[in-house]
Amino acid sequence: MSQDPDQAKKLQELLKLLSLSNGDTSKLTVQQRKKFEEYKFWRTQPVARFDEKVDNEGPIDSSRTPADIPSEPYPLLKEFEWCTVDITNPQELEDVFVLLNENYVEDQDATFRFNYTREFFNWSLKPPGWHKEWHVGVRIRDSGRLVAFISAIPVTLKVRGKEVKSVEINFLCIHKKLRAKRLTPILIKEITRRVNKCDIWQALYTAGVVLPSPIAVCRYAHRPLNWSKLHEVGFTALPANASKTQMIAKYTLPKGTDTPGLRAMKYEDVDQVFDLFNAYQDRFDLVQVFTKEEFKHWFLGADTVIYSYVVETEGKITDFVSFYSLPFTVLNNPMYKELGIGYLFYYASDADLGFDDRFDPAATSTLKKRLNHLISDVCIIARDLKMDVFNAMSCQDNTLFLDDLKFGPGDGFLNFYLFNYKAFPISGGLTDDNSFDVKNRSNVGVVML
């Protein structure tokens, strides 16, 4: 798919916001990698070093117990104080809402900003088994204003078939005016301390920047749903060799879905979908293992945030797909206040489950055809929900449909990290030149918010 350079630049800049990316990590030189290895903070942490040979997968440090972990928080500068954010308290949830919406990420031109909702935080921060103590904040001692935040939620990972009790780290945010105060390392150390006290020693986290040392790298992709609006808000430019009519036509989707049996998922579908999902996830080297209660929370737990659909044929559910909504606020625009953004979440299909080899040509062809129909219909649903762009990554089996469905490859890359756990590299659905790898696909089956 050919793209206008200005359009691509603006889209990729916004996609980088997802991970605080500093650019294309594939172009790092050997010298730059050596500099990363010298980072004062990460060199003290139990993480794999760059180019370190991994002989066996497993924990890096397994010698400590909760009794070895300090009971008191790490010291802060005298003007700050730690707090545990109670997101069941409406005012404290409002504090997180304000902090992240005003400081989390914003494009350089201050044109767009993530518009997190209170419903999104309730969904993403309160899965089954969540701990209030893992919602860590820093406040100004005199005013009580929340100026920093980091969170962890419990997850069970499976790394090449081995279950690993872990947490997922997310929403690290420092107030813009305090980013020279070196709060990030102390926030990471404090959330680590609190998690370790619960006898959990591993974590999954992602970043656009390269740190020691990624287990996998995936690439962002985007699919315009409302090109006209994107153009009007300055999100995309009109290519010199095309008209507005041509661009609108290029990205126009059918009026309605055409997958027989496609409908919204219901609670009574959970048993069937849960079994299908687990069978499908078994193909990947890095996945999150859900309990049935977690499954219900993540896929049916927030009506205005997560959207889940199934395909039912003669009483049997053959396919499942989900996506979530996280819009941008459009700043300083008289016509529009919001840009609707959809994000492909998890999905599953039985299309190729009858084959012994996932990469058998017949299996690949069958799954590719099924996913192209399914995700095309998902884009139509997202458009009808007033979403203007639909995002996906090169993880899962996404490379089978990204190009066909006019998802443009982004400049943003997302690095996946395991804390205190060594593992062999896991393919992220990219070739050596960072194009989408249709042949080998990805072995990353986990999707981070």
From TrEMBL:
<dbReference type="Pfam" id="PF02799">
    <property type="entry name" value="NMT_C"/>
</dbReference>
<keyword id="KW-0963">Cytoplasm</keyword>
<dbReference type="InterPro" id="IPR022677">
    <property type="entry name" value="NMT_C"/>
</dbReference>
<comment type="subunit">
    <text>Monomer.</text>
</comment>
<dbReference type="Pfam" id="PF01233">
    <property type="entry name" value="NMT"/>
</dbReference>
<feature type="domain" description="Glycylpeptide N-tetradecanoyltransferase N-terminal">
    <location>
        <begin position="59"/>
        <end position="218"/>
    </location>
</feature>
<dbReference type="GO" id="GO:0004379">
    <property type="term" value="F:glycylpeptide N-tetradecanoyltransferase activity"/>
</dbReference>
<comment type="function">
    <text>Adds a myristoyl group to the N-terminal glycine residue of certain cellular proteins.</text>
</comment>
<dbReference type="GO" id="GO:0005737">
    <property type="term" value="C:cytoplasm"/>
</dbReference>
<dbReference type="InterPro" id="IPR000903">
    <property type="entry name" value="NMT"/>
</dbReference>
<feature type="domain" description="Glycylpeptide N-tetradecanoyltransferase C-terminal">
    <location>
        <begin position="232"/>
        <end position="447"/>
    </location>
</feature>
<dbReference type="InterPro" id="IPR022676">
    <property type="entry name" value="NMT_N"/>
</dbReference>
<keyword id="KW-0012">Acyltransferase</keyword>
<comment type="similarity">
    <text>Belongs to the NMT family.</text>
</comment>
<keyword id="KW-0808">Transferase</keyword>
<dbReference type="InterPro" id="IPR016181">
    <property type="entry name" value="Acyl_CoA_acyltransferase"/>
</dbReference>
<protein>
    <recommendedName>
        <fullName>Glycylpeptide N-tetradecanoyltransferase</fullName>
        <ecNumber>2.3.1.97</ecNumber>
    </recommendedName>
</protein>
<dbReference type="InterPro" id="IPR022678">
    <property type="entry name" value="NMT_CS"/>
</dbReference>
